[in-house]
Write a structure and sequence with these properties.
By secondary structure, this protein is α/β, with parallel strands linked by helices. It contains ten helices and nine strands. The protein has a six-stranded parallel sheet. α4 runs parallel beside α5 and α8 runs antiparallel to α9.
Length: 248
Amino acid sequence: MKIFLDVGGHEGQSLSGVLEPKYAFDKIFVFEPVKSLHTKLNQVAGGRPNVHLLQYGLWNKNATQKIYSPGTLAGSVHVAHQDVDQNFFEMCNFVDASEWFSKNINKDDEVYVKLNCEGAEADILLDLLQSKEIFKIKNVMVDFDVRKVKGLENSQHEVLDKFRSENFKSYSICEEVMHGPSHAIRIQSWLDKVGANKTDITSRIKQFFYWSKMVISNKRPGYSWELKGFIKAHTPLFLLKLAGARRS
């Protein structure tokens, strides 16, 4: 089974990018503990049966914990995060990442994980490493926002050192793989790099018509940029040269 885990779903910016035909995920799990964000997430999910919106977050334990500045891009369990307001918080639910993986992910599943949870990512990764559940992941893309938490600035290096010692290589760092004019496009740039996209002709045709529909309806900022890239990549070189000669 092909599965996508969106850990830190926020308003569905990543979800909107992984719903496309070229990925064909059998299941998409969106972890978002902040209640108010689920209104927008439900709109993006559009009632699709393969999308499961979970009103809790992953962590290294089962707990009810404050999220500071909930609903903002900086929302974090860490009061020492440089961008949060310690006086503005919401009590939210969390489940142990290893326990969740053990119950919901099989060894033969093809699993992609986006991990962007404003500081909790280090705790989650170390928990999954300790339980060995992390080896069920095909690729995890990590945004190490823990660098913004006072006292935990070195956590990224600790996690990466642990990856090396445990010989875990199936990870990507967001700055290295996310490129493009919108978040959805940047998520796709990572997934395409790690081979999550289907490249058979049927999938490409479905994707082309999907892109065209989204560009025409103006529902996705940045899709005209991606469509131009698609046309350039699939137009014979001699036609591109001919067009350039005519313009000159």
